[in-house]
């Protein structure tokens, strides 16, 4: 059940971030053509682009965590004995998870603040709290991924950086 | 940490620190205003109050600063309607062309005493911003690659505006092609001919060196660059009676002083602008009237867009302006 | 407070936390400790604001274009062309690698994409000619720095965003320094081949043959012309240029050469999104940290300490270069540019340094730092792609650090070298 739910989320994540990239390219190219050929600037292009970048970054945050694809410095850890590495990785994943859940809380309260303040984007008048809600969701999902990675490190052999990859076998 | 750590002063009990943010550079009208406030308040409270001024960029752009004020991270801010139109849509009335007078004395009288603007201030308060004063930084003027004297001259002209739907409507009424662009991108866009013109007071034109990439500077006085000094309400209510009195009096004085501050900055700026290779055009009364007429429908659009509160405010404001114009004729 | 922030960042980095964690934690903890009454939501506001600049959209777009081209045949066509021109000189294969990195850099804005696209095939070709991995991989990692110096460049875009400098001018200004560095690399390639007596030159191709390769490479080579020309003529903004480059890459690889199937595009977009997300979360966190620093009025203290009062231009440039170089050794260079530039910019402007020249020097330090131990991201990219040990890559890099150090010194002493670009561009 949880597996199935997780698989579904994984697909949704992949689908949303890759479509966001493609859509961004289409909107920006469309705007160039519209301006050069018809002399009409799409005032919404900028806002759509900004919305997409929020999706890519924060939904991507969870996806990156899942795949263990973060930028991190592993050189010192690699010099240490396996046991120590395993303990360190467990600490790193659980602390990162706690940090992300805390951010979820802060970001969630900020979403409520934004909801009360009623700010909207200038052209499309999209409420800003929706974009902040996407951030909150991204923090939460990433927190879950790190928690799962922590559990994997406890339950299984090996050093797990994400829920889908094992240290050293990148890609 | 050392005692000169800016952080420690904010929490100390014996000294009250006021954080004051504004939207402009250290070399600007708003900074003159903020620094004058700092000097006067610190002096009048004998060091009991310290004012820390953060010019733009340090804590974020204008809408972000406004939000920080609403959230209480910042105590005082100078917030311009063009940048807070998404928070208090009604305040976009300041962007309307030829709503105010082309006589700054008249405008000053209205900004100081208007009851309509008191109503507008209440709308700010609903959004957790307490308006301490409305004041002006001078007239909006145009710079352009083409000579502009009549609304027809705008046809097809790509003009940069602040991101406000009402401004877009206004320039559409002149058949221009309004392009909302971030302020920082205006110079390079003018240079690359992605746009043909822009509107701003002279001090901003000079500061951004738009004269280098434009052929005409047009004294159109089509709107006032109005702005508001706002406070976080909890901060304001939390001040001791004594300090609040000092703040109130200082703000009142600055409302008067701002007229000279902006005049000085704008006159100096125009001189500098005219030193470069640019042609100066001054619109006469008849030409201004043509723009007033062409932009009139936008006032109706304003009423439609922002609803009944805004409609009442603007009608009352129009009366007040007419009254003041009579008085100064 | 500054020591608390530095302490948190370096401790967490060294332990091996993902890089976003130290940046986020340092901002959060300092807020909780020094400004307990201030709403933490402001940090979220700043994370959000950090990635909202329109010009930043150019970053994922340039990465997307590079990803499409590395999935296709662009890099191979460029390699064949370069090798047909200089492959017969002594050191020709190493030289081909240097030039190919610069050329691929002219279609891509990132060093990582360049390592993958130009480095992978060149390592194999160099190995066939007797180069050891300890020679070829360090060359690839360091020559990839050129990708950041040759337009388009993600580092220059970020510098342009935070300083308001024209990205178009930065792009053009990067070309001269890039050519100087390339020349120094080529000389070293020649000397190295002679020292180890490597017989690595290929046969001299006939002009007809070379012409055939040129024709094949012509479309990708049209790329930089399109981007620079487009931005400079005002046809499009840097962001749009990046999007147009995606369209161009799609046209070349999918429509014309059919080396990438349209069904592969979502997969490529996904990999672009992952790289973008990993970088942008750092930019967001960096913006949050920046805000905390400004709120505590720390930038003034830092600049006062480092630069003193009324410093000379040379001293300012030198200190800025050292600062960026050192910090880029530890933290992703793009984030360093994002956070540090606003702090040092006022000092540099006061000292009369040209903003474009400053941008190029900062970009060069970022590029060098990205390949410098202990944390240079390019080293880790190379480890992931070539599966060679960390130390082997680092050791072989020494000669290149020397070259890049000399190049930096040259630009710092004579910043006017950078400004020669002004002669070649139309001014109004
Ligand atoms: Na490049
Ligand atoms: Na590099």
TrEMBL record, chain A:
Residues 24-154 form the Tripartite ATP-independent periplasmic transporters DctQ component domain. Keywords: Cell inner membrane, Cell membrane, Membrane, Transmembrane, Transmembrane helix, Transport. It is a multi-pass membrane protein. GO terms for cellular component: plasma membrane. It is found in: Cell inner membrane. It comes from the Bacteria. The chain crosses the membrane at residues 21-42, 48-66, 87-106, 126-147. It holds the Pfam family DctQ. GO terms for biological process: C4-dicarboxylate transport. GO terms for molecular function: transmembrane transporter activity. Belongs to the TRAP transporter small permease family. This is TRAP-type C4-dicarboxylate transport system permease small subunit.
From TrEMBL, chain C:
InterPro entries: DctM, TRAP_DctM. Keywords: Cell inner membrane, Cell membrane, Membrane, Transmembrane, Transmembrane helix. Residues 6-417 form the TRAP C4-dicarboxylate transport system permease DctM subunit domain. One of its GO terms (molecular function) is transmembrane transporter activity. The keyword Cell inner membrane applies. The chain crosses the membrane at residues 49-69, 139-159, 171-191, 213-235, 272-294, 314-344, 356-386, 398-424. It comes from the Bacteria. GO terms for cellular component: plasma membrane. It is found in: Cell inner membrane. It is a multi-pass membrane protein. This is Tripartite ATP-independent transporter DctM subunit. It comes from Geomicrobium halophilum.
């Amino acid at each position: 059940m949880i597996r199935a739910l997780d698989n579904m989320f994984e697909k949704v994540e992949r689908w949303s971030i890759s479509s966001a990239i493609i859509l961004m390219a289409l909107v920006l190219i469309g705007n160039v053509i519209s301006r050069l050929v018809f002399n009409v600037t799409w005032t919404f292009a900028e806002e759509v682009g900004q919305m997409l970048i929020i999706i890519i970054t924060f939904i991507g945050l969870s996806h990156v965590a899942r795949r263990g694809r973060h930028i991190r410095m592993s050189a010192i850890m690699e010099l240490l004995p396996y046991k120590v590495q395993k303990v360190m990785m467990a600490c790193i994943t659980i602390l990162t998870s706690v940090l992300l859940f805390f951010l979820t809380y802060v970001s969630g309260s900020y979403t409520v603040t934004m909801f009360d303040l009623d700010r909207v984007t200038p052209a499309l008048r999209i409420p800003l709290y929706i974009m902040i809600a996407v951030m909150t969701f991204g923090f939460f999902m990433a927190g879950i991924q790190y928690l799962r990675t922590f559990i994997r490190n406890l339950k299984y052999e090996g050093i797990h950086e994400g829920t889908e990859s094992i240290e050293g076998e990148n890609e | 940490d050392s005692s000169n750590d800016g952080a420690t002063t904010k929490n100390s009990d014996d000294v009250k620190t006021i954080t004051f943010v504004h939207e402009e550079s250290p070399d600007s009208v708003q900074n003159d205003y903020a620094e004058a406030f700092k000097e006067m308040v610190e002096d009048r409270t004998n060091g009991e109050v310290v004012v820390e001024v953060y010019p733009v960029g340090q804590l974020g752009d204008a809408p972000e600063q406004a939000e920080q004020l609403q959230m209480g991270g910042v105590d005082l801010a100078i917030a311009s309607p063009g940048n807070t139109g998404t928070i208090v849509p009604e305040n976009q009335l300041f962007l309307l062309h030829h709503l105010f007078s082309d006589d700054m004395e008249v405008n000053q009288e209205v900004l100081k005493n208007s009851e309509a603007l008191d109503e507008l201030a209440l709308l700010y308060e609903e959004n957790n911003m307490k308006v301490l004063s409305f004041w002006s930084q001078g007239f909006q003027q145009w710079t352009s690659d083409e000579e502009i004297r009549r609304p027809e001259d705008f046809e097809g002209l790509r003009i940069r505006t602040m991101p406000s739907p009402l401004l877009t409507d206004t320039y559409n009424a002149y058949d221009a092609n309004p392009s909302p662009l971030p302020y920082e991108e205006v110079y390079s866009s003018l240079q690359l001919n992605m746009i043909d013109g822009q509107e701003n007071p002279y001090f901003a034109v000079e500061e951004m060196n738009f004269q280098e990439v434009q052929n005409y500077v047009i004294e159109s006085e089509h709107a006032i660059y109005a702005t508001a000094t706002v406070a976080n309400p909890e901060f304001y209510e939390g001040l001791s009676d004594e300090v609040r009195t000092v703040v109130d009096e200082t703000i009142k004085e600055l409302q008067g002083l701002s007229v000279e501050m902006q005049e000085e900055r704008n006159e100096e700026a125009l001189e500098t602008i005219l030193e470069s290779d640019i042609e100066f055009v001054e619109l006469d009364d008849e030409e201004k009237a043509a723009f007033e007429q062409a932009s009139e429908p936008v006032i109706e659009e304003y009423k439609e867009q922002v609803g009944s509160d805004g409609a009442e405010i603007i009608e009352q404001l129009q009366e007040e302006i007419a009254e003041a114009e009579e008085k100064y004729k | 407070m500054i020591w608390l922030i530095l302490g948190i960042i370096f401790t967490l980095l060294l332990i091996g936390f993902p890089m976003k964690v130290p940046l986020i934690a340092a901002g959060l903890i300092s807020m909780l400790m020094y400004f307990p009454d201030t709403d933490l939501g402001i940090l979220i506001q700043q994370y959000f604001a950090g990635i909202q600049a329109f010009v930043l959209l150019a970053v994922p777009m340039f990465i997307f274009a590079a990803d499409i081209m590395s999935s296709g045949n662009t890099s191979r066509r460029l390699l064949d062309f370069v090798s047909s021109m200089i492959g017969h000189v002594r050191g020709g294969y190493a030289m081909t690698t240097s030039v190919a990195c610069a050329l691929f850099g002219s279609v891509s804005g990132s060093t990582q994409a360049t390592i993958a696209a130009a480095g992978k095939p060149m390592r194999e070709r160099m190995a066939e000619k007797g180069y050891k991995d300890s020679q070829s991989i360090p060359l690839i990692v360091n020559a990839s720095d050129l990708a950041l110096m040759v337009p388009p460049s993600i580092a220059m875009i970020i510098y342009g965003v935070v300083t308001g400098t024209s990205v178009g001018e930065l792009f053009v200004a990067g070309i001269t320094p890039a050519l100087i560095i390339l020349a120094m690399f080529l000389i070293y390639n020649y000397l190295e081949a002679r020292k180890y007596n490597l017989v690595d030159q290929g046969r001299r191709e006939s002009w007809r043959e070379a012409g055939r390769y040129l024709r094949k490479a012509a479309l990708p080579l049209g790329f930089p012309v399109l981007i620079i020309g487009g931005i400079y003529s005002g046809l499009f903004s840097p962001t749009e240029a990046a999007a147009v480059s995606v369209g161009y890459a799609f046209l070349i690889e999918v429509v014309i050469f059919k080396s990438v199937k349209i069904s592969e595009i979502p997969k490529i977009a996904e990999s672009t999104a992952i790289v973008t997300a990993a970088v942008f979360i750092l930019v967001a966190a960096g913006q949050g940290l920046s805000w905390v620093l400004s709120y505590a009025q720390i930038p003034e203290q830092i600049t006062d300490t480092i630069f003193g009062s009324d410093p000379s231009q040379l001293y300012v440039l030198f200190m800025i270069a050292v600062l960026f170089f050192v910090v880029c050794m530890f933290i992703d260079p793009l984030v360093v540019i994002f956070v540090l530039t606003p702090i040092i910019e006022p000092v540099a402007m006061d000292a009369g340094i040209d903003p474009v020249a400053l941008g190029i020097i900062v970009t060069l330090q970022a590029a060098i730092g990205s390949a410098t131990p202990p944390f240079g991201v390019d080293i880790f990219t190379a480890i992931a792609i070539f599966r060679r040990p960390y130390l082997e890559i680092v050791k072989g890099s020494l000669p290149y650090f020397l070259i890049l150090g000399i190049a930096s010194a040259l630009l710092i002493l004579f910043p006017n070298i950078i400004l020669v670009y002004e002669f070649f561009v139309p001014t109004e």
